[in-house]
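Researcher: Last one for today. Full complex below.
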Amino acid sequence: MEIETYTLILSALLFAIGTAGVMLRRNVIIMFMCIELMLNAVNLTLVVFSRSLGIEAQVFVFFVMAVAAAEAAVGLAIIIAIFRHYELVDVDRFNLLKW
Amino acid sequence: MMADFFFVLFAVMAIGGATAMVLARNPVASLLYLVMAFFAMSGIFVLLDAHFIAAVNLIVYAGAILVLFLFVIMLLNLGGTARSDLRGPISRMFGIIVAGSAFGLLFFMLRRGHETSMAGGMGQATIDAMLQSQGAVGMVAEPMFRNYLVPFEITSLLLLVAIVGAIVLARRSAP
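Model: Here's the assembly. Have a good evening.
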């Protein structure tokens, strides 16, 4: 089948775009959104391989989604806590772990 | 032929949405481009016969997680920044080199994995038979509740810890 090959290329491309976003942006929320994009690109790869190696891969997609939800909740809470102190979301300006 | 057309459409939407997310100046616009990219990825899940994953991707990812991001962006009042927060030319070049090498590495690794997995794969007929006999949900539910029941329960614990952690971290007065 052709569609699997092209989907794998697409997922690699989306992962690379997510990496580029994390490297290029300073806004911590956008960097976080890029990480979500990278997680979903991996999900795409898992679904492609589930077609040939067994349907269990789709169970892992489910777990990746659960972990992504937990990570988003905790990460956004940390962002809110940092914003409350610094009043900005620029990662270059966060330079203290303790204040 | 129809599937090819939709694949190209969704692939272009996904890549365009992802690129626009990285380049958009306004965080709200950036987030909506990401929703578009996730919507297109759900379409690709449908084309790959993963109907349940496509629905969960729409409901949980595009519907819940990204709306949580939208809440935070609007709570912190970040929409409509005039100045772009893209990094300078040197970091930009460095970032593009890193992303390009990540793509190259993934491309070669996935190509090797694809060749090996195609050799002893299930094939379209097996997937169609499973969809027919178990349905799109049962196909995923059976291995999940038979072989991965303990990880599933641990996931619920993880979500509980995340809820408590989020409340403690975002509370107004830290102890």
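The helical segments of chain B are 2-23, 27-47, 51-75, 89-119, 124-146, 149-170. The radius of gyration of chain B is 21 Å.
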